[in-house]
Amino acid sequence: MEIVMALNEANLIAKEVKIRNLRLPKEVLETRRSSVRWLALSLGILNPGESRHGAVAVLDALVYFYFIRKKDPEIAEILEYIGKNWGGIKEKTLRYHLLRMKRMGIVQNARGRFYLRPPDVGDRDDPSVWVMSLLESDYREIASKITEIINNMRSKSMGEEHE
């Protein structure tokens, strides 16, 4: 009789990675708001049906500063951008969304400035390099662990066959 160890699976989760392969109808590209909402859904920042206006506004500001202005903004600059383009957000709410995106691995900060996590290698200003770096690092780590588990299971099975 085999004894299975009871694991607290919630404690094993180091990070959840959620991306969605969404269709991209032309309507999505008609406005900046619909584009950034699509991006937030695709990156797992929003769930379908969720209306987190603040998260979308924060992502929009980060994309604007990172890819268009090529600048790492301070909180005040992000608040100003959101105020002009989205109707405002409380600083506490902004910090909540920044922290959430930081935990997701999308955002980094240093010296009071916040920015999208830059790619490990390649042109920081290239969106395809940025998104591939964002996705590959998480999936490479997960793939490595899955491979280790399967190899471990395979080696144990081969040992059982010889007994």
Task: Please give the structural blueprint.
Layout: H1 9-12, H2 32-42, H3 53-69, H4 75-86, H5 91-103, E1 107-110, E2 113-116, H6 127-161
Antiparallel strand pairs: 1-2
Helix pairs in contact: 2-3, 3-4
Structural commentary:
The structure is a single chain. The protein starts with 8 loop residues before the first helix and ends with a helix. The chain is built from six helices and two strands. It is elongated, with a radius of gyration of 20 Å. Strands 1-2 form a two-stranded antiparallel sheet. The mean pLDDT is 87. The protein has two domains: 94 residues, Winged helix-like DNA-binding domain superfamily/Winged helix DNA-binding domain (Arc Repressor Mutant, subunit A), CATH 1.10.10; 29 residues, no CATH class. Helix 2 packs across helix 3. The protein is mainly alpha-helical.
